[in-house]
Amino acid sequence: MLSSEEVERIAYLARLSLSEAEKVRYAQQLSAILDYAAQLSRVEVGDDVPPTSSVLSVHSVMRLEDTILPGLTREAALRNAPLADESYFVVQAALGDDD
Amino acid sequence: MTEHETDYEVVIGMETHIELDTASKMFCACSAQCFGAEPNTHVCPVCLGMPGALPVINRRAVEYAMMVGLALNCQIARFTFWERKSYWYPDLPKGYQISQYQYPLCYDGWIDVDVRDVASGTWQEHAERRRIRIRRAHLEEDTGKLTHIGNFSYVDYNRSGVPLLEIVTEPDLRSANEAYAYLSALQQIVRYLGVGTADMEKGAMRCEPNMSLRPKGSHELGVKVEIKNLNSLRAVRDAIAYEIERQTRILRSGGSIQQVTLGWDEARGVTYIQREKESAHDYRYFPEPDLPPLQVDEAWLAEVRARVPELALARQDRYRRDFGLSAYDAVVLTADRAVADWFEAVVAALPNGPGRAKAAANWVQSELFRVMKSRGIPNSAVHTLPVKPAQLAELIMMVERGVINHHTAKHVFEAMCDSGADPQCIVEERGLAQVSDAAALRDVVEAVVAAHPQQVQQVLAGQEKVFGFLVGQAMKATRGKGNAQMIHALLREAIERQRA
Question: What is the pTM of this model?
Fold first, then answer.
């Protein structure tokens, strides 16, 4: 079972603020998810099977030509922003490196 | 320093970010050429991190990164994939940066650099060659740009998604000068390869040295500090030199160093502690599910390898060895690839080129540079001049064969730079061929001697400077076209005949 501190840490990384009741509930739910996924580690695969990095059967899919295509107009880009002026997205001052 | 004081040694590692100069961004087709553009005009759902938008790898960016890796003698990963580096900051619209972690595209390399003490007067001639190991160079995407005003931050995502190469050294640098030399070499390589401007003032190359001091002879590392927001090579050198001095003083007085991130105050020439975050980073890297892995096969690698030109340091060594040039000449001629290529084309067009390379080097460094400077043409754009290397080679040979003298050749070169005409045509059209007709020159010399009896007597009395004056008078009478050697000889004879 995840500890309350671990849940708080995970919530902080996602910038979520949880009530005490939610912390208890999520500790149970997150633990259940982790336990479910942990079944995988019980499978014996030997040492020469590298961890899976992709489940796709393709590789090296690239844009072969380095050409420019039009994107969004600035008006369209800013339209759904919670806060913006005519040129910029605007957010609460963010001075630190992390928060 | 008293005998009780310990000697300290600095250990420096360098993390450098370089923007790759592709047309479009790393994972979308927005223009990556966004310096100075109106904010948020080079954006699309991918680089704005909108839900459902899917990234696609820009092949050219991968190739540019491989070229840098090869130039840094790195191994190139045959298999690699992208990972999400999660952190929370508004310059990153997705909440994560697509980067490489477990398998960098390039790894285990090295670069040789010539470390020069630029404070010394003869810095070009004396260099210590040091090998700096490269731990890794991986490809990622640049972030947006924030401007903080009052309680708000203004975000411009034009730069978001520009291809970025992060190059990390082993902690092999041992002085501020070495750090400077390493970064200059790296910058020069990026420019030689044509994969970026590496312009620090514009943020196209950003360096973060980390450094620590330890007693000389010790093998343990001391407490590490990182220095940020350095926006010129000089700032990097000055900041490191300042920190070495500051930390040495603290350690000698029995104090200890704090592990912090420092900023550099360019105006005051001091470092300052940047606000520290309370929690350590927790990037939670995991494979990017939106991008398939990347495989580099031998054919592709060979194709990319073929695009890596001979670099500046190798050229310098070759010029000194094969052309007998000085270190100074070699450094100056290879500073820009365009100039080095131009110079080598002159040498290639000269009969017995290596034997005449010194003459070519002199022409490039004096006349070619003077013309470009006076016309405001940067060295990197030498090919935009109408004059071509083979024409300079021809001009050099005309001087050597005595068709024109050196003085005239300078004027002919200037005309070649204007019109791109061949030197022979200019000489013929303007009647500039050197006068080597002994009878004609003898007349000129006799006239000069007759017109300057007083100066002739001074020469006879041993005043050699005055001889130069008389040569000048004779040269002037030929409108600069006289064969200087012949004038010298004839004048000497004529003056001797005046000895009473």
Answer: 0.88
